[in-house]
Each structure stands twice: as structure tokens, then as C-alpha cells.
């Protein structure tokens, strides 16, 4: 079918190219997206009023489509904040330390725990939870700091986030842009993420294993000492953290043995003994601390059990007729509902008198985090939505009875006759676009583009659009989600592992790219 391209088509195409070039330069793409939205609407309508309105309408339409995503992120983050205040977050992963006895067992436990927790809570809040508790244990068991960082990045920011199978944020964005069901994208993304992650983990294990050492408490002391040397003269500067070790206040005179050595502990104990009265009356503070720890243990068991029960329910609905199956939006809503109830209970346990205010504070913190993490997606998604006829009408102020322009699909239809009609070339092209889109380090901002291109190109090359959308999702999130891009959330992983973030990104690059190539070939041949 011949399509007559107009000036609006060329302006829209120029906007896409500028955005991709801006991503390649590692710059934020919000401003180019907003300007491209304005120019496209202005050129299409010939009205500056419509152009200005489109800037707002595009973000508004994107917000309507994606607000459920913001809300689920906010609720889960708020719940984790309440658990952290109670002290239950550390207790949730503490039992795994008992089985981390050597390098290989630590590798497997670290990978499994990071993956499971990141799958349910996202890696941004999960990485600090896992890293603060399990990384020192893995170092003591003989793993190198670099291999520890690679495992956490691959399993958290990579394998768990790229499928996002439980919360279904990423599949929802990809599916909305591609015009397919979110569950179809999620199921294929789960398989592809396991292929990429399994390949990357296997290569990491084979390459890094030779750097591991025999388990010893001295390894942990050496790791901490290396971090101390990295801090150097900035030890007392509150503004510096150096190597992920965190900022430290100026040292005060301490007893022999230091603050963490045996002498320091003995001195502190001796001091405490001197001030304890001989009266055997129970210490109220000790009783309160005992009660708090008991409550924290209860929540440390409640949270995994609650989400385990939810997983069982999902599986029953998917593979049996015992319970009705849940769609993507319903599943995400239940995750948010469980998070909200746990948040209320944890806040009430921590602050019985003022738990109403405490709960509100946690929710506000969760919403702030959600908009910080996802806010830039709205104007970017708005620009790419203007190329989709389903969303173009409201953005351009067209009557609901009239169909919106299919700008992006018109462009694809025009050029597809000049491109090789080959499933492999198209699939790897979508993967490359996803990787380039991930260069901004945000992880999700390129999903509207890869999703929209998948919906347009899939029928032309006889590939299911959901398959192409899943491939593009792999490229976008494995790059920008925080595995092979150093200016992303990989910084947090490097900080906890206390390794240079550029070294960590460089070491992750080849294992991840090998996995992405293998998964793309698998998707074309099998899906």
C-alpha cells in the first residue's frame, strides 16, 4: 500500500533520529522529546496552539497509560521503607548466610537471592538490601569483589528487571506501544531474560572463578581495609564516600583495638558493665529492644510467605482451573495491595501512636521515588505515542470520533519495501535500537520506541510483534537498567561491592552481549 508522507512524517522521523543521537551522546532526552512533540504537532495541524497543547497532552496521555506503574512502584518502595525502619529487611535475607560457605555456594546463593528479591521488589531497593548483608559473607567465603558485583548486576538489574515478570512494568510499556497483550510480552521476556542471564552467569563463573580464594575471615578484613585506603584523607569529610565505603565522621580517641576490633568491643563491654546497676530489675530498654526484634522477625517471615502464597496463586491460575487466571494488571494490583497492607502493619508495629502519620510519610517517599525513577518516561513516551494512531488523537486534539494519524506506522510502511524482509535482520535491528536507547541509563525510556517499532515491523517480516517487543526490551534494560552502562544504577552495585564502576561495566559487557545475541537467535527460531 502506498502511503503519502507529509511534512509531519519527516519532522517526526527527524525527532526520532535526534533522540537516538542524543542517547548516543549520553545526554538526557527529555528536552529533545518535548521539542519534537511540539514541532510534530505544529507541522501536522499548522496551529501553534495545537503544538503547545500537544506538549501537555502527550505527557497527560502517557501518564494515564502508565500511572498504574507509578503507583505500584510507590507502594512497594513504601513497604520496604517501613520494613527497613523496623529492621525486618535485613532479617529477610539473614538465613542465607548459613549456606554461603565457599565461593561456588556463595555465587549460587547470591545469584538466587538477588534474582528473587529483585523480581518482586525491583533491584533499586533490593540491591542495598542484599548487598549490605550478603556481600560481606560472599567476600569472606572467597569470592572476589568484582565477581560479587557482576553477579548482583546480572541477576538484579539484568535478569530480574529485563523480564519484570511479577510487577510487569516493562512488559506493560512495551505492550502498550506495540499494541499487544502485556502477558504475551512478559512470558517471552521471561524466557529471553533467563537465556541472557544464564549465559552471562556461566561466562562470569568460568572467567572469575580463578580469582577466588580459600574462605577466610582475613579476606573480609582485607576487603574493608582496601576500602579504607580508597577513602584516604577524605575519611572525615561527610561529602565523600570513596569506593562505596560510605562517609565517615572524624575519628575520636578510642580504646586499643579500634571500633571494630576485639579490644574495642571489650572496652565497650567493660564500660557498659560499669554503668549497669547491681539491682536485678529488668532494663526497660532491653525489653523494648527484645520486643522490636521479635516483631521484625515476624515480618521477615510474613513478607516472603505472603508473596510466596501469591506466586502459588498465580501458578494455579496459569496452569490449572482451581482459581481464575490473573491478567497483568490484576497481578500488579494484588502485589500493590499486599504491599499496602504490609506497610500499614509494619508502620503500626514501629510507631503505634503515630502510625497514621508514619504510613503517610512512607507513601510520600514511595511516590517521590517512583517519579524520580520513572518521571522522565512520561514526555518521552508522549512523543512516541504521537506516532501511534490510538493515542495521537487525544494528543493532537482530534475528535474522538475521528481516527488519529498513524505517523510512525506510515514511515515504517514506506521504508519496509526497501529493507530486507528478513526476520533475523529485523530482530537484531530491534535489539540494537534497544541497546542504543538504553544509553541514557534510565532503563525504560526506550521501551515505547522498541515497542512501537515492533508493532509496525512484526507483520511485515512475519514475526509476532510481542516477540520483537521482548527482544527490544532485553536490549533496552540490559543496557540502561544497570549492567553494561556505567552511568546507570550500576553505580549502586559498584558502591556496595567497593569496585570501580567502569571496571564492573567493562567486565559485564562481553558476557551480557553473548547472552543477548544467543537469546535473539533463540527468539527468532523458536517464537
Automatic annotation (TrEMBL):
Residue stretches spanning the membrane: 6-25, 37-60, 66-83, 104-123, 188-207, 298-316, 331-350, 362-385, 391-411, 423-439, 477-496, 508-526
Any coiled-coil regions, as ranges: none
Keywords: Membrane, Transmembrane, Transmembrane helix
Annotated spans, Disordered: 230-267
Protein name according to UniProt: Membrane protein
